[in-house]
Specification:
Elements (H helix, E strand, L loop, with lengths): L3 E7 L3 H12 L4 E4 L13 E3 L15 E2 L2 E6 L2 E7 L5 E3 L2 H15 L2 E3 L4 E7 L2 E6 L4 E9 L6 H5 L12 E11 L1 H7 L2 E6 L5 E7 L4 E7 L5 H14 L4 E3 L3 E6 L12 E3 L15 H21 L4 H27 L1 H8 L3 H9 L4 H15 L7
Length: about 375
C-alpha cells in the first residue's frame, strides 16, 4: 500500500465514495479506507429520491424497486392513497448501492482499501497522519471523515462537543418481513408511512427484492427494545401475515444546530457530519450532496489555496438551513399530529418534491400551514 496521498477518505458509503469519485476525476491521489469488505450490510430503510442518480453516473440495479404508489395512515387507521410519478422514489438494496458507488470511485482512479479500519488521526507537520488497525500509518494533505454516525474522525477531532442531548440523536429499527402472497402484492411497488403510531416519529413499509422492510423511526433518543415493540405492534395493527426476521436498529446523529464541519485539514461528510434530516431520518441524498461539495472545496484548497471553511459555509447555507426548518417543523408536526396528518395527505406530491430537492422545506411548510388553516376554518382561498 502506498503511504502518501493527496486525500484520504475514511469510509466508503455514499458520502465517502461520491467524494472519492469527484476527487479522483480531478486527478488527485485518493485513498478510500473501508473497515469492512463490499458488499457489506448497512442498517437502513433505503428509500431514496430518484434525483440521486443524477449526482454520479451509476446504473440502476434490478433490485432497486421504483415506487409508484403511497399509502398514508394515522395510527394505523384513516388510510389515504395516491400515485407517485415514475422514477421519483426508489427502494434500494444498500449493500448493492454502496458497492456500486465504491466501485465507481475505484474505477475512476481512487485507491479502495477494504478491511482497513481507521483507529486514529492527527494533524502534524503540515499534513495529516492516519493510523489503521493493522498498524499501518498513512499520510495525506486532507482527511475526510465519512464513517457514519460512529465516526472515529469526528470524535478524534472533537467536532461535536456538547451535542449529545436527547434530541441530537434519533433511532431507527426494523424487521425484514417475509409476507404471504397477498401482502406481497399489496406492497410490491408501494411505500406506506404511518404518522403518530410512534409518538414523535413514523412507522413505515418499503418493498425489497425478497422481503418487506417494516420499520420505525423516532427523532429523539430511545431504546431498541421500545422500537421493537412499536414495530411488532405496527405489524399486528395492519394484520400483516408472514415471518419476521431478526430485529435490527441503530442510533442516528441528527442535524439540529449549525456546526463547523472542518478543521484546518479535516472535513466531515454525510452522517459523520450529522447531515441527517431530523424529521424523517433520511440521509442518503444529503450524504451524496455533501460528498460532492467536499470534493469541490478540497479541490479549491489543494489547487488555489482556498480555506476549507467554504465547505462548512456551503453546508450551513444549503443543507443546514433546510434541516433547521425541518427540525422546527418536526416539533410542530409531532405536537399536533392529527392536524398535521390531515394537512399532509393534501400535499403528498410536495413531500416527494422535497425528497428530490426540487421544493424547499420553507415552501412546503408554508403550503401545509395554509392547508391546515383552511381545514380549521381560519384560512382563505388557495
Amino acid at each position: 500500500m502506498k503511504s502518501e496521498f493527496d486525500v484520504i477518505i475514511a469510509g466508503s458509503g455514499p458520502a465517502g465514495a461520491v467524494c472519492g469519485y469527484f476527487l479522483a476525476k480531478e486527478g488527485f491521489r485518493v485513498a478510500i479506507l473501508e473497515k469492512d469488505a463490499h458488499p457489506r450490510e448497512k442498517y437502513c430503510a433505503g428509500g431514496v429520491p430518484g434525483s440521486i442518480f443524477d449526482i454520479v453516473p451509476i446504473e440502476k440495479s434490478a433490485k432497486y424497486i421504483p415506487i409508484d404508489r403511497y399509502r398514508f395512515t394515522y395510527m394505523g387507521e384513516k388510510p389515504s392513497t395516491g400515485e407517485i410519478k415514475g422514477g421519483e422514489v426508489y427502494s434500494l438494496d444498500r449493500a448493492i448501492f454502496d458497492h456500486s458507488l465504491a466501485r465507481l470511485a475505484r474505477d475512476t482512479g481512487a485507491f479502495l482499501f477494504e478491511n482497513c479500519k481507521v483507529v486514529s488521526a492527527r494533524e502534524t507537520e503540515g499534513r495529516v497522519s492516519v493510523q489503521c488497525a493493522d498498524d499501518r500509518t498513512l499520510y495525506c494533505e486532507v482527511l475526510v471523515g465519512a464513517e457514519g454516525g460512529t465516526s472515529v474522525i469526528a470524535r478524534n477531532f472533537d467536532f461535536f462537543a456538547g451535542q449529545n442531548g436527547k434530541r441530537d440523536t434519533g433511532i431507527c429499527g426494523y424487521y425484514e418481513f417475509y409476507p404471504n402472497d397477498k401482502t406481497r402484492r399489496l406492497y410490491e411497488s408501494s411505500v406506506h408511512l404511518d404518522f403518530n403510531f410512534v409518538r414523535g416519529g413514523v412507522a413505515g413499509i418499503l418493498p425489497k427484492a425478497n422481503h418487506l422492510w417494516i420499520g420505525v423511526y423516532k427523532g429523539e433518543r430511545s431504546t431498541l427494545q421500545e422500537m421493537e415493540k412499536f414495530a411488532k405492534d405496527f405489524i399486528q395493527k395492519l394484520n400483516l401475515v408472514g415471518a419476521t426476521g431478526k430485529f435490527k436498529g441503530l442510533l442516528i446523529p441528527l442535524y439540529r444546530r449549525p456546526a463547523k464541519l472542518n478543521r484546518q485539514r479535516v472535513i466531515l461528510v454525510g452522517e459523520a457530519a450529522r447531515l441527517v434530516n431530523p424529521l424523517s431520518g433520511e440521509g442518503i441524498k444529503p450524504a451524496m450532496d455533501s460528498g460532492k461539495l467536499a470534493a469541490e472545496s478540497i479541490t479549491d484548497y489543494l489547487r488555489k489555496g482556498f480555506s476549507l471553511d467554504e465547505y462548512s459555509d456551503k453546508i450551513r447555507s444549503q443543507q443546514g438551513e433546510e434541516f433547521r426548518i425541518a427540525s422546527s417543523f418536526s416539533r410542530i408536526a409531532y405536537a399536533f399530529p392529527a392536524l398535521t396528518y390531515d394537512g399532509m395527505i393534501r400535499v403528498a406530491e410536495d413531500a416527494v418534491k422535497i425528497l428530490n430537492g426540487t421544493l424547499s422545506y420553507k415552501n412546503f411548510q408554508d403550503r401545509l400551514k395554509r392547508k391546515i388553516m383552511r381545514k380549521i376554518g381560519l384560512g382563505g382561498k388557495s
